[in-house]
Amino acid sequence: MRFPLTLAKISFLIKKYQFSLNLPDGKRQMTEVLIIGGGVIGLSIARQLHKKGVRQITILERGRTGGEASGAAAGMLAAQAETNEADDFFYLCHDSNRLYPNFARELFDETGVDIELETSGTLYLAFTDSDEREIRHRFDWQRAAKLSVEHLSAENVRKLEPFVSPEVREALFFPNDWQVENRKLLAALQKYAALNQIEIIENAAVERLIIKNGKIVGAATANQTYAAETVVLATGAWTSLIKADGFSLPQVKPVRGQMICFQTAKRLFQRVIYSPRGYLVPRLDGRILIGATVEEVGFDKNTTASGTEFLRETALEIAPSLVNLSIADKWAGLRPFAADGLPVLGAFPEIENLFAATAHYRNGILLAPVTAEIMADKIVGKIESKYLKAFGPRRFQTAKAV
Ligand code: FAD
Ligand code: GLY
């Protein structure tokens, strides 16, 4: 027999719903996967988990989603310009780069946001003897690894990019190093979350993990406990600040990068341009980003006069004709750096269902798609990518024990 919904029943259902969302003792309903950190890594993992069928995903973000390193980045997908040998790290970067065309296409279909993937390649310029030695070394190891890399004369560089300095001596061209507009990437990932009931809670700083009998059961902010079956640390430069009773998290420290930006009415450059001292990233809207400093100054995100001056000189060395432009914007972000400079990806063997995806240092935008795939495969399908072995969170301890 069916009863009509009475007022009392409706009121009971409303109370039950409210209770399940926000329990009176400061505990919240159980979520399947709790991701701590709403940067490009946390957001990309959330999307990939959702695509694999996980339906209860919560992201806790201590500030604003995308408001830290991921928003400060230059968006270069620099697998060849920013690696030094054909090792596991290079192939992780390379594999992620290869995922980008599909990642960009899918995100556009899913959200309508164009992340402005530009595949016009990257130049790496030499101005001095030591620069020439550097690019020849880079050319040699990349050719030996059968990568696409071309050596260009100064004349050919200036044919490709007429605003490059006449002082340039020679250059490398990496056709497969690209760029995206990382702030649009963040917007696309946030929209994916909003469209697919992935819960994002901002201004929620996790202070400690809750571990019971060798298993993660949740995480706590100052005034709220979040119960979860699985927890992923995507906490970037802040990873080591989280407390976990009797259990040590990987040491990750902040490395500041300052950037400046010029605005031009018309686009002057067609591709990313590096020198050994910095880089220039031309955006579609006429902005020219110049980066970046590499500074160990703790959690200080201020820009400095000396940093700005260094970046301006870097820009003028690449393109002296920028001299009359004033700086339209400047900012800084904190790159997450582990002791060996490599990402920390995977499960903690001693704590069931606790995972880390952090320490992407200078390449987290590039590495977002591959990180999301590896982590979601591990969490949902128990699939062990070869990269989890190379970049696991306990590799530092193993190294000590040997
Ligand atoms: P973040 O974006 O820092 O996100 C981590 C998030 O976790 C933050 O939002 C933080 O608030 C949150 N969080 C931390 N602790 C807690 C907690 N306890 N509770 C709740 N939330 C928490 N990479 C590239 O691939 N290409 C580039 O061109 C490039 N350029 C860069 C230029 C600069 C100037 C900088 C600074 C970085 C650059 N990077 C680049 C590196 C890239 O930005 C990072 O590797 C990447 O953003 C790391 O992503 P993330 O999500 O781990 O970190
Ligand atoms: N990958 C560019 C930077 O970290 O500055």
Outline the fold blueprint.
Elements: H1 7-21, E1 27-36, H2 40-51, E2 57-60, H3 69-72, E3 76-77, H4 88-111, E4 122-126, H5 129-144, E5 150-153, H6 154-160, E6 170-174, E7 178-179, H7 182-195, E8 199-201, E9 208-212, E10 215-220, E11 225-233, E12 243-244, E13 252-263, E14 272-275, E15 278-282, E16 287-291, H8 305-318, E17 327-338, E18 344-347, E19 354-358, H9 364-381, H10 386-391, H11 395-401
Parallel strand pairs: 1-2, 1-11, 2-8, 4-14, 9-12, 11-19
Antiparallel strand pairs: 3-7, 4-6, 5-6, 9-10, 10-11, 13-16, 13-17, 14-15, 15-16, 18-19
This protein binds flavin-adenine dinucleotide and glycine.
Flavin-adenine dinucleotide binds next to α2, α3, β13, β17 and α9.
